[in-house]
């Protein structure tokens, strides 16, 4: 973005010479702008510190192709192992896990919102109610975990 330094008009309407009657810095800046560098100091620093990044379509395409299939067999085996492990999980365990995680997340969310309502809106009744419901959600998650663990132990003992 080349730009020429602004020219000031004298009292008679003609532009003044930057080398006459102005400080040396202005004269040096004018000499630089006539020479090789038209950029500001900030632009020069940014150009030195930030690498050139091309945006958009380039003439050279990427050297690698994006492929949905894994390149080697170990990645394919890991994906097959994960899908096999997910299929082997019994429905009771999966349902218990989902319910416990949702209860914990809901409890943390409700407690956080309750604290924010009390802190920023000074609504003690609403904030206290949200905190109480959040604590109940966390207690319910703990009970579900304990209950599921006890039922698994009873099944394993039999």
TrEMBL record:
Residues 1-14 have a biased composition (Polar residues). It comes from the Archaea. The chain crosses the membrane at residues 96-118, 124-143. The lineage of its organism: Archaea, Methanobacteriati, Methanobacteriota, Stenosarchaea group, Halobacteria. Keywords: Membrane, Transmembrane, Transmembrane helix. The keyword Transmembrane helix applies. It comes from Halonotius aquaticus. Residues 22-39, 68-80 have a biased composition (Acidic residues). Residues 87-147 form the DUF7322 domain. Residues 1-80 are annotated as: Disordered. The keyword Electron transport does not apply. This is DUF7322 domain-containing protein.
